[in-house]
Specification:
- The protein is of the alpha+beta class and 659 residues long.
- Helix content is 35%, strand content 27%.
- The chain has an eight-stranded mixed sheet.
- α3 (67-89) packs across α4 (117-132) and α8 (248-254) packs across α16.
- It binds one RNA strand of 76 nucleotides through β12, β13, α11 and α18.
RNA sequence: GCCGGCAUAGCUCAGCUGGUAGAGCGCGUGAUUUGUAAUCACGAUGUCGGGGGUUCGAGUCCCUCUGCCGGCACCA
């Protein structure tokens, strides 16, 4: 028999018969390792203990102590155990696919009846039975025809389709968990009992399209989470509770920031507190933009379809636009919108984006190469008819305002403009409390316009720009727009969630379509490039992110109510008013609370309202002209003179770019 | 848009198999002058999301519309 050489993590090599399995390798090392082994890494690939190794390779045996492979196997086996449980309870259910994902797995089923929350309990109980049975896991490689025939006979059409979609050179691996069989690329544990029975939980049921295609049947997806032990599961469930507690929709109500109602789905009614955050952030961005070399403009909301046809948006996004039809023959007598005179009706759309309007501004007056780069910024209020199922609080809305700008420039200026934008964005993110961010670089897609030379040049310019700023990126090959590459900027919040906010996109297409040009040094007319860029994305969504990142405890300068001055006795009311006035005079948002309530009551209420500073004023403070400062979340309070507290809080109320 | 769930007082929620609506907080009034996360008493909460149907009778059952929630699809 042929021999192969396996190299261990410590650098030593040993020779084995070809076709040796990791289980046999582990047993050859020690019986305790054989017992603990759950899988192996073979040349870096996650390898089932039962799969034969046919050639020289680097090998490492995994045990439950190895975090990533252990979780992978536990979750993967649970997907199968859950599918088996479902088919044991409801044999008519068809199985499809069940991958590992996030903190657990999901499995999609085809079943006429919906699964109920009670069903999840039944399935969980059955899963524990399967785990306790310690059923062996077996794997075999089958010929395609045999597997297809097997699934056809068993009435599993989805599996048959899956086999059709697996590339012909890939071996088809059949797995058995006890008597139950599934098609799976593996690897798996050796028996079901290796899965911890008390560290998983079925979370919810949801619809999901077969193969993620909305023209395909809707299946029922059951989500589960799983960990190596009960404590990790508990920690995860606690984390979910914490995430729910910082939900911006809940905090928005509790802090009286905004509301939404069904007459205007997907649009925000901002309350005074929320609008204070919004305008404070907008004022900040306006200063940053000005300092960054942008000229601010403002463009129309309601624009004739002709412009959208010219820009190409009408063809592609008509169904996602709010259409406004106006019968211009109306005379005040017969204004019923339902009986419009078609010939006289003008069709407009609420602008879903700002770029075509910005090109119109650019086109006023002939531009020279000396005018470039021209950076036009707008807090552009846009309306998009988002599908109802996509709406989510203020994070995904139908009416929103972008911190949008378009840079008109020459090809040679792309690199420096890109680098300049990355620095601008990095500075803004840092000042807003997000010191690190990730860049994703999306390059030319298969379906594209433009020459290869042009793509080469522009992609290279973006890469050089990133390099120049000393940053790294991850490549998203093929994910660019049909006309140009783009950068997306992702920040991470306090509980580890990642949000795409900024974007930078190179567009030679729209200037072409809308006929923008400039006169070059050579006296000829040329096409400018257009760079679409946003830093926050939309104010609505970014404020949602800020709220969730901070759990409502916004940075002092952004907090809508910065200070409450609370009286302890009514004799202090005059002095309270004086303190409030002194703070207001220095630009601090302070308000008085002289209600006839105990200080405990006031502290509790304003703490729940996330007010960052409470000043308590009793007889002593009046006497000494001091205040007692209590910071949100702190138990201790500090006694300060009026001047001291005004100076301290005024400094904090100052936006970061003005310090 | 698709699948499933939900919609009761300002908020959070109770209301069993149909028999003419309830709690806590908040709100109002009064008392209390209070020292860092809920002072006490009294009082009012409402077309049970809209429309239709079944029934002697519907918050409760059925249909439908709207919105919200969880996913999926979408996100210029």
């Amino acid at each position: 028999m042929a021999q192969i050489s396996l190299t261990f993590p410590d650098g030593n090599s040993r020779s084995f018969d070809a076709g040796v399995t990791p289980a046999e390798v582990a047993a050859s090392i020690s019986s305790s390792l054989a017992k603990k082994a759950i899988s192996a890494q073979v040349d870096g690939r996650h390898w089932d203990l039962a799969w034969p190794i046919e050639q020289d390779a680097a090998i490492a045996i995994n045990t439950m102590a190895d975090d990533a492979p252990a979780l992978e196997l536990i979750r993967h086996d649970l997907a199968h155990i859950m599918a088996r449980a479902v088919q044991e309870i409801w044999p008519e259910v068809k199985v499809t696919i069940g991958p590992v994902r996030d903190h657990g797995w999901f499995y999609d089923f085809d079943r006429a009846e919906p699964f109920t929350p009670e069903d999840l309990g039944r399935i969980e109980a059955k899963m524990r039975d399967i785990i306790n049975a310690r059923d062996p896991v077996k794997t075999e490689i089958w010929e395609r025809d045999r597997a297809v025939a097997y699934y056809e006979e068993r009435g599993e059409p989805f599996k048959v389709e899956l086999i059709d979609r697996i590339p012909g050179d890939e071996p088809l691996r059949m797995y058995w968990h006890g008597p139950w069989q599934d098609l799976c690329r593996g690897p798996h544990l050796q028996h079901t009992g290796q899965v911890p029975a008390d560290a998983f939980k079925l979370m919810n049921v949801a619809g999901a399209y077969w193969l993620g295609d909305s023209s395909r049947p809707m299946l029922q997806r059951i989500y589960g989470v799983a960990f190596r032990n009960r404590n990790d599961l508990k920690a995860h469930l606690t984390m979910l509770e914490e995430a729910a507690a910082r939900d911006h929709r809940k905090l928005g109500r509790e802090m009286d920031l905004f509301h939404m109602q069904e007459e205007a789905p997907g649009q925000v009614f901002w309350h005074p507190n929320g609008w204070t955050i919004y305008t404070t952030l907008q004022d900040y961005m306006r200063r940053k933009q000005r300092a960054g070399g942008y000229r601010e403009i403002n463009t129309p909301q309601v624009v004739d379809r002709k412009l959208w046809e010219a820009s190409g948006h009408w063809e592609k996004y008509q169904h996602h636009m709010f259409i406004v039809e106006v019968d211009e023959s109306r005379d005040g007598e017969n204004d019923d919108a339902a009986v419009r005179d078609k010939a006289q009706t003008r069709i407009n759309a609420l602008k879903p984006m700002n770029c075509p309007c910005h090109v119109q501004v650019y086109k006023q007056g002939l531009k020279s190469y000396r005018d470039l780069p021209l950076r036009l910024a707008e807090f552009g209020s846009c309306a998009r008819y988002e599908p109802s199922g996509a709406l989510h609080g203020i994070m995904r809305v139908r009416g929103f305002t972008q911190d949008d700008a378009h840079i008109f420039c020459t090809e040679e200026q792309i690199e420096s403009e890109c680098a300049r934008f990355i620095e601008y964005l990095a500075n803004v993110y840092a000042e807003l409390g997000f010191p690190t961010f990730e860049i994703k670089f999306a390059t030319r897609p298969e379906k594209r316009v433009g020459t290869e030379e042009s793509w080469d040049y522009v992609e290279n310019a973006l890469e050089q720009a990133i390099r120049k700023t000393g940053r790294t990126y991850t490549l998203e090959a093929g994910d660019g727009a049909f006309y140009g590459p783009k950068l997306d900027f992702y920040l991470t919040d306090a509980i580890g969630r990642v949000w795409q906010c900024g974007t930078f996109q190179v567009d030679p297409n729209l200037p072409e379509r809308l006929d923008a040009e400039y006169v070059g040094a050579d006296g000829d007319r040329h096409r400018p490039f257009m760079l679409h860029r946003a830093c926050l994305g939309s104010f609505e969504r970014f404020i949602g992110i800020l709220i969730e990142d901070s759990a409502g405890r916004l940075p002092f300068w952004l907090a809508p109510r910065q200070v409450v001055v609370a009286s302890i006795v009514s004799d202090a009311n005059d002095y309270v008013a004086e303190v409030v006035a002194a703070l207001n005079a220095k630009g601090v948002r302070a308000e008085a609370d002289t209600r006839n309530e105990k200080i405990n009551y006031k502290v509790r209420e304003h703490s729940l309202g996330k007010v960052p500073a409470i000043l308590a004023i009793g007889a002593r403070e009046v006497e000494e002209r001091t205040v007692s400062l209590r910071r949100l979340g702190e138990k201790q309070s500090r006694l300060l003179s009026l001047d001291e507290v005004v100076a301290e809080l005024a400094a904090e109320a100052c936006p970061p770019d003005m310090r």
